[in-house]
Design brief:
The chain is α/β, with parallel strands linked by helices. Helices cover 36% and strands 24% of the residues.
Length: 408
C-alpha cells in the first residue's frame, strides 16, 4: 500500500493497535480529540485469549512484552466472582485453563500504544463529519479543517461521528445506566480473598451493581519512565453501575462530587467497600453513561466504499461483559489482514466487504453478553422485585460464603 494514506479516527486501544500494523506499509494519520494519550480514565482493561493473539500480529514483539510487564497476567484472572452486597461470593467461575489474559491499566496501555507512533497522531482533533466517494474519503474537523485519505477507519468509540455521517444517525442508544468508576487505596484492610484471583461483580437488591478488581503495580524498575508515574500504588479499582435516574448529580458533575455520590449508592453495602470508595482519589474518578448497539440489527451494514469501522464505533457495548477492548483489538487484526490482501492486489471494496461481514457474529455475541448484567439491574427497578430479591441475594451470599470460605 505504498503511497496510500489511511486516516484512523480515534486513538483508543483498537485504533492505536491498528495504526501500528498499518504504518508498516502505508502513511497513517490518527485523529484524536484528547490533548494527550494520558487523557483517559485510568481503569482496568481485560484482554482475552483471542485478543492477546491478535495483539501479537499487530504490535512489535518488544512493545507487547513491555505491555505484559506492566500489566497483571497469570493468576490475576483465574476466576470471575459474582458476589452479594456484603461481598460474600455467590458464584465463583473458574477461567478455562491455559487461557492467555492481560489485565491492563487503561491509561498506561494507551500511553504505551501511542508512544512509538506519536508522529502519526494529531491530538486535539475532533471529527465532525466524513464524506466518501470512489476516490477516497475526507474528514472534516470541528475547527473546519479537512484531512483527506484513501481510506478512513472509524475508531472513535460509541456515538461515533464518522459512522453517524454514513448512517445519518447514531449507531448506538443510551441504555439509561450510568457508571461511576475510580481508584481506592487499599490501606491495611484485607480485601476479599477471591479478588486476588480475579475480578468480581457484586449485585445489590436495589438495582445497583459494583465491579471490583485489584491493581498490583510492577516494581518501578520494570516500567519505562514515560509510564512509571502512572502506575501508582496497590489499589482497588471499583465501578458502580446503576440506573441514571437514581443519580442526583448533573451529567457533567465535577469529579469531586462523584466520590460521595458513589458512596451514597453503597449505603447498605459492605463497610469495607464503603470505606474504600469514600477514600477514593477524586481526580481518578469519572462517570460515564452506558451505550450499546442493537445486537439484532445489522453490524456495519453499509455498502463498503472508502470508510469502514471497528470497535465501539460500530458495535458499542457496556463494560459489564469485559469484552469491548478485546473485540476492538480482534477487529483491528481482521482489518489489518484484509488490507494486506488489498496490498497484494485484491480490490478494496471486496476486502472491506469480507471484513465487515466477519464483524457480525463476534460483535453480536459480545454485545449480548455485555447486556446480560444490565437486565438484572433493570429488573430490580421495580419495588416488588426489590423486596423479592433482597432475601434471595442474602441467602445466596450466605451459602456461597460458606462454600468458598477458604478463599477469603
Amino acid at each position: 500500500m505504498a503511497g496510500v494514506r489511511i486516516v484512523v479516527c480515534g486513538a483508543g486501544i483498537g485504533g492505536l493497535a491498528l495504526a501500528h500494523a498499518l504504518s508498516r506499509h502505508a502513511e497513517v494519520v490518527v485523529l484524536e480529540r484528547d490533548a494527550t494519550a494520558a487523557d483517559t480514565g485510568g481503569y482496568r482493561i481485560s484482554i482475552n485469549d483471542d485478543a492477546c493473539r491478535a495483539l501479537a500480529t499487530l504490535l512489535p514483539a518488544a512493545l507487547l512484552h513491555e505491555i505484559r510487564a506492566v500489566s497483571d497476567t497469570g493468576t490475576a484472572f483465574e476466576q470471575f466472582t459474582i458476589a452479594d452486597p456484603r461481598l460474600r461470593p455467590i458464584v465463583v467461575a473458574a477461567e478455562p485453563p491455559g487461557q492467555d489474559r492481560i489485565l491492563a491499566h487503561r491509561q498506561v496501555l494507551r500511553v504505551l500504544l501511542a508512544r512509538d507512533i506519536a508522529a502519526t497522531i494529531r491530538f486535539g482533533s475532533t471529527v465532525r463529519t466524513v464524506a466518501q466517494d470512489r476516490h477516497g474519503a475526507a474528514v472534516t474537523l470541528t475547527d473546519g479543517s479537512q484531512i483527506d485519505g484513501d481510506l478512513v477507519v472509524a475508531a472513535d468509540g460509541a456515538d461515533s461521528a464518522v459512522v453517524a455521517s454514513l448512517l445519518g444517525r447514531s449507531p448506538t442508544r443510551d441504555l439509561g445506566i450510568t457508571g461511576i468508576a475510580g481508584w481506592a487505596p487499599l490501606g491495611d484492610a484485607e480485601p476479599p480473598g477471591y479478588l486476588r484471583r480475579g475480578p468480581a461483580l457484586a449485585f445489590g437488591p436495589d438495582g445497583t451493581a459494583v465491579f471490583l478488581s485489584l491493581h498490583h503495580p510492577p516494581h518501578p524498575s520494570a516500567a519505562h519512565p514515560t509510564i512509571a508515574g502512572l502506575l501508582g500504588e496497590p489499589a482497588l479499582i471499583w465501578g458502580t453501575i446503576t440506573r441514571s435516574s437514581r443519580l442526583t448529580l448533573p451529567r457533567n458533575a465535577p469529579a469531586a462530587a462523584l466520590v460521595p455520590q458513589a458512596a451514597a449508592l453503597l449505603d447498605r453495602w459492605s463497610p469495607w467497600l464503603r470505606e474504600r470508595v469514600s477514600g477514593s482519589e477524586a481526580p481518578r474518578t469519572a462517570a460515564f453513561r452506558f451505550r450499546a448497539a442493537d445486537p439484532d440489527a445489522p453490524i456495519a451494514g453499509w455498502t463498503p466504499g472508502t470508510v469502514t469501522a471497528l470497535g465501539d464505533a460500530i458495535h458499542a457495548m457496556p463494560p459489564t461483559g469485559g469484552r469491548g477492548a478485546s473485540t476492538a483489538i480482534c477487529d483491528a487484526a481482521d482489518l489489518a489482514r484484509a488490507l494486506d490482501d488489498h496490498r497484494r492486489g485484491a480490490p478494496l471494496a471486496e476486502v472491506l466487504a469480507r471484513y465487515q461481514r466477519r464483524l457480525g457474529p463476534r460483535a453480536r455475541s459480545a454485545v449480548r453478553e455485555s447486556l446480560g448484567p444490565l437486565r438484572v439491574i433493570n429488573a430490580l427497578r421495580h419495588r416488588p422485585a426489590q423486596l423479592l430479591a433482597r432475601p434471595l441475594i442474602d441467602a445466596a451470599g450466605a451459602c456461597g460464603a460458606w462454600r468458598y470460605a477458604d478463599q477469603r
